[in-house]
What we know:
By secondary structure, chain A is an alpha+beta fold. Chain A has three helices and nine strands, in the order βαβββαβββαββ. In chain A, helix 2 (52-69) packs antiparallel against helix 3. Chain A has helices at residues 12-18, 52-69, 100-117, and strands spanning 3-6, 26-33, 37-38, 41-50, 74-80, 82-85, 89-97, 120-126, 131-133. The longest helix of chain A has 18 residues, at 52-69. Chain A has one domain: Molybdopterin biosynthesis MoaE subunit (Aldehyde Oxidoreductase, domain 3), CATH 3.90.1170.40. By secondary structure, chain B is an alpha/beta fold. In chain B, strands 1-3-2-6-4-5 form a six-stranded mixed β-sheet. At the A-B interface, strand 4, helix 2, helix 3 and strand 8 of A face helix 1 of B.
Amino acid sequence: MSFSVSNTPIDAQAAKKAVQDRHCGAFVAFEGWIRDHNEGQAVERLEYEVYRPLAEKEGARIIGEALARFAISHALCIHREGLLELGEMAVIVCVSAAHRGPAFDACRYIIDEVKTRLPIWKKEHYVGGVSEWVNCENCAVAGHAHGEHHG
Amino acid sequence: MLKCIEWVVNDDALREMKTRVRYFALFREQAGCESETVEWPGGQARELFELMSSKHPALKSQAAALVAINDEMSAWETVLDDGDEVLFFPPVAGG
Lengths: 151, 95
């Protein structure tokens, strides 16, 4: 499965193995982790809500686009759902290719599209008991860098 | 599953089609329920959202909100057919 949603911890080694190929000289991975702060607030844990039927369909579409657009051999992405603790991996993207250029480009493309197109939402639980849905309105506008948030 | 109180437009002549509506994340909290079926005159997805906002005053439109119809991402201008299931997504924040 090129894109999947998991409610258990992501096995990064298994993900890497899944894209291994003797024709490939390059492997690029991106991992998004749960950070202890966001926009000045101390974060205690994070909760992901995923609408699976559409996330899986659209996620597979994004992987397909990357395979068509860049000279890569394999690509996969796994996204967590449910309650995650600090330091846990929220998302992983693995790409293998003959050469590093397309592997970097495809990895970046996949994570950027995943962040703006998939029906996934996160609720931050702050130190002190307050929780809030992360309003990523700006992130969903094309061209806005999402790097200030998780990952 | 939290269900909204069933709600219909009072005038019989205006109840031309049935649409199932589902809310996610922030929208679910603003609407106070996960899903409901609405009988209304029909129109675009955007018009349905506005109608639902008038029913649930806390439900606020957002520029980056997305809409899906029958599990396919769609445009807000899409005209709905009788029996469609419409999903209202607040701005997404994966990754």
